[in-house]
TrEMBL record:
This is Rod shape-determining protein MreD. Keywords: Cell membrane, Cell shape, Membrane, Transmembrane, Transmembrane helix. Belongs to the MreD family. It is a multi-pass membrane protein. It is found in: Cell membrane. The keyword Amino-acid biosynthesis does not apply. The keyword Membrane applies. It comes from the Bacteria. The chain crosses the membrane at residues 77-97, 104-128, 140-158.
Length: 167
């Protein structure tokens, strides 16, 4: 059952990313910032914290590739970035005591790492032409707030599921 449930829940979170933004898009309310939901990434980070690192890396590759195929014109940026962030979060979580606050902090750190990697790679290639200050205030901070709220909402039920899978 867990072999089906974990990918299914992650896929539902991935689908919710676009669904939530159709309802909560800031431009609908006259705001000029950008919130990017990374709900599947948050679940992948939680998997990296509670399960073997290979779970986070494999799910990062799969859902990063899905993000590349659906949302971007360049294949590989999200796939590489998601898997790399999942690996680093898995390594960090092995050295830190895993509780609610540390996991929330790791989730925020992971989403920030993903955003910076994608921004950096897109800037390197020449796709992104946004200044760092504009990126920070108009995209990164709202994105971190949205994903932190999502992490707080899903932490307890998802961590309980992961402990059951692990044990």
């Amino acid at each position: 059952m867990s072999r089906i449930l974990l990918p299914f829940i992650t896929y539902i979170a991935f689908v919710l990313e676009s669904t939530v933004m159709q309802v909560l898009a800031p431009e609908h309310y006259g705001w000029d910032f950008l919130m990017v939901p990374h709900f599947a990434m948050v679940l992948i980070i939680l998997m990296s914290c509670y399960l073997k690192p290979s779970y986070g890396i494999v799910y990062g590759l799969i859902f990063g590739l899905l993000s590349d195929l659906i949302y971007t014109d360049l294949i590989g940026v999200y796939m590489f970035s998601t898997a790399l962030v999942a690996y680093f979060i898995a390594v960090l979580s092995r050295y830190l005591f895993s509780n609610f606050f540390v996991t929330i902090l790791l989730s925020i750190l992971g989403v920030a790492g993903l955003e910076f990697l994608v921004y950096g790679l897109n800037s390197l290639i020449g796709i992104a032409d946004v200044k760092m200050a504009d990126f920070f205030y108009d995209r990164l901070l709202p994105t971190l707030i949205l994903n932190a709220v999502f992490t707080i909402i899903v932490y307890f039920p998802f961590a309980k599921l992961l402990r059951k899978i692990e044990g």
